[in-house]
TrEMBL record:
SMART domains: B_lectin. One of its GO terms (biological process) is response to other organism. InterPro entries: Bulb-type_lectin_dom, Bulb-type_lectin_dom_sf. It comes from Platanthera zijinensis. PROSITE patterns: BULB_LECTIN (PS50927). Gene3D superfamilies: Bulb-type lectin domain. Residues 1-30 form the signal peptide. The keyword Cell inner membrane does not apply. This is Bulb-type lectin domain-containing protein. The lineage of its organism: Eukaryota, Viridiplantae, Streptophyta, Embryophyta, Tracheophyta. It comes from the Eukaryota.
Amino acid sequence: MASTIRSAAVSSILLFIAVQILLAAHSCSAARSKMMPGETLLAGKSLSAGHYTLTMKEDCNLELRHGKNITWESHTSGLGSKCFLYLEVRGVLVIYSEGASKFIWRSGPTSNPLSSEFVLQPDGNAVLFATTNLWSTALSGEIMKT
């Protein structure tokens, strides 16, 4: 009898551990679809939603893809190195090159100190939100001329 209880307890513990491992693996692999102020998207990293992926490419181009097709891009390929996308606390998306003091692209001169977030939506529209829609991939950005 004690052996049966011990066996059931061990089975329960093993099942609990397996469930915890599966939950941890799922949360680690869950696709990131938004950025908050102060966050960065490093070269080679992506936001994903639905069948869309927004990737900060190694060549400094920010690309929005639907499958293999580019639906929007920043046109900043080759303008820097080790670039990253940064959401400023004032509500502006900016691509910086490592070590550069100036941006190579930004979502626009709009500044809004209210809490904002940058969201890649499942319909493929990447939108910078605050109290209103500040910028989206349907609008153009500004490329810094060097």
